[in-house]
Structures are given as structure tokens and as C-alpha cells.
Amino acid sequence: MDASEGTGDSVVRDNSYTLRLLKHKDTEKDEYKMNFPRRGKAVIINNKNFTDDMQKRGYGVRSGTDIDHTLITAQLQRLGFDLVHHHNATCRVMKDEFAKVAKEDHFDADCFVTVLLSHGEEGKICGTDDIIDLEEIFQYFKGAHCPTLAGKPKLFFIQACRGKEFESGTNVDVVDAKHVVESDLEISEVIRIPSEADFLLSFSTVPGYYSWRNSTNGSWYIQSLCCILDQYGTVLEIQKLLTKVAKLVAYTEQRYMSNTADPAQNRKKQMPSFTSMLTKDLIFHPKDECT
């Protein structure tokens, strides 16, 4: 939980899949092609209220998550995504949505984004009625399960706890604390790339730890992510963006330190993290410049 304050071109084989690749200037660049007709789809799951059974298991109302939803919606719209929203989604609804999206045609899209706002545990995310493995969600978009996203960025932003430990922080002296369209290319060969390729997983916290959320302002992670996207979202590479998010959460002393009556939870910190399996740089260039 989080603390309250296709085509015939791809076949699965040995955890990898084949992808037609080409001799084309785009494949020789170190940056993903982001001038497809559409930016792509972004699915936002915003779970606030949970069943009685889940509440008995400790998964209470996530006050402040609607603020997160509003903030991230604005940023993804600004970046040009087509948004799909699910509020208070059960595990079945989540699975059905991702299965449906994975079967859609993303051939004319730059990338795909998912935002998960919910309770969680390490490697798991909560629907309103139960818990599912994150890997089950990721699996929908791997290899031949979603061939039209092969070779394109698949980004997951996850605001949820990954355990029950609290980050107390450390005192330090700081100086600065403040895909390819077929008509555009010449097909040359078929290669195999790992099914795990071109994923990026951005988490609000590190494994084993709580993720903090303010009932008035929303979660620390989503606040910071949206702040950085607003300032640099169309000019900085995604991993540089997420490094700035991590710094903002980690070093902003007054705003991002817990303030509770419980001494065991007071004055705690948080450290966002991300894992990248991207194979190129990713920049959300404005769509009107991508011609």
C-alpha cells in the first residue's frame, strides 16, 4: 500500500521475438522515432476506494489520488497522448483493459504509457478487490503479445508502496540541493530482440519501502514527475527526466519529508527509482515539430 499523509513479423521463441529490421537512418540513430502520426495511448488506473475485504487487509482509502490523476492527466494531454481512464478498477477490469489495448494496432503510434495509482507491494499492484503481479500486466506488451509495439517504448509509471519499510534518510552536506513505418525503409533482414526490450519501469519508491501521499497535494512522486514533465518534458531524454524527479523528491527537505503524529512514521523520506530496458534515447519532441 502507499502511506497516507498482430502481424506475422513476430513470434515468441525462448523469451525473445523476431522483428523485421531495416537499413534506414532511423535504425542507425540512438533516439527513438517519435514522428509517427500519433503519440500513442496512455492508460491511467486511479484506484482510490477498495472493497471491505481489502480494507480489512490494510488497503484503505487513498485520499489525494484524485489530485495525482488530475496532474498526470494534464501532462500526458500536453504531450499529445490519447488517454483512457479507469477509476476504482478491479483486477478483472485492469486485466481486460490491458489485454484489449495489447491487441490494438499501435503501428502509427510513437509509444505506449501506463500510469498506475494504487496500493501495492513489491512486484504487485492492487485492484480494488485483490492484488495482481505487475509482471502479469507487463506480459501483455511483450513480444508477439503486442507486435505493433515491438521496438517502441513502453513506459510504466507506478505510484504505489513496494513494502512496509520507512526511509529515514541520511544527513549529508550538499552544495546544490535546491518502429518504423514500412514505406520509409528498406527491409534488409530479420533479427531477434529480447521480449523485455524497450520497457521503462518508473517507481515511486525503491523495493521494500513505503510511498508517501499527501491527502491535499497528492503523492510526492506524481507531484514531482508532473513538475519535471512540465518544465522539461519535451526537451530532455526520459532517463534524465526521471533522474531530476528522483533528485526533487530526495532533496526537497520541507515539502517531501513526512510530518505525522506517529514518531515511527515522522520525518521520513522517499527515494524514487526506475529500471530501463530502453535501447535508445527517448525524447517527447512536440508533435508539431515531428514532421
TrEMBL record:
A cellular component term, taken from the record's GO annotations: cytoplasm
Q: Which GO terms describe its biological process?
A: apoptotic process; positive regulation of neuron apoptotic process; proteolysis
SMART domains the UniProt entry points to: CASc
Which intervals hold domain Caspase family p10? 189-286
| Domain Caspase family p20, chain residue ranges per copy | 38-165
**Domain of life of the organism in this record?**
Eukaryota
Q: Which Pfam families match?
A: Peptidase_C14 (PF00656)
For this UniProt record, the keywords arranged alphabetically read as follows: Apoptosis, Hydrolase, Protease, Thiol protease, Zymogen
Q: By its UniProt entry, which Gene3D superfamilies does this protein fall under?
A: 3.40.50.1460
Instruction: Kindly give the InterPro entries that the UniProt entry links to this protein.
Output: Caspase-like_dom_sf, Caspase_cys_AS, Caspase_his_AS, Pept_C14, Pept_C14_caspase, Pept_C14_p10, Pept_C14_p20, Pept_C14A
Give one GO molecular function term: cysteine-type endopeptidase activity
Similarity remark: Belongs to the peptidase C14A family.
Kindly provide the name given to this protein in its UniProt entry: Caspase-3
Recorded source organism is Dreissena polymorpha (Zebra mussel)
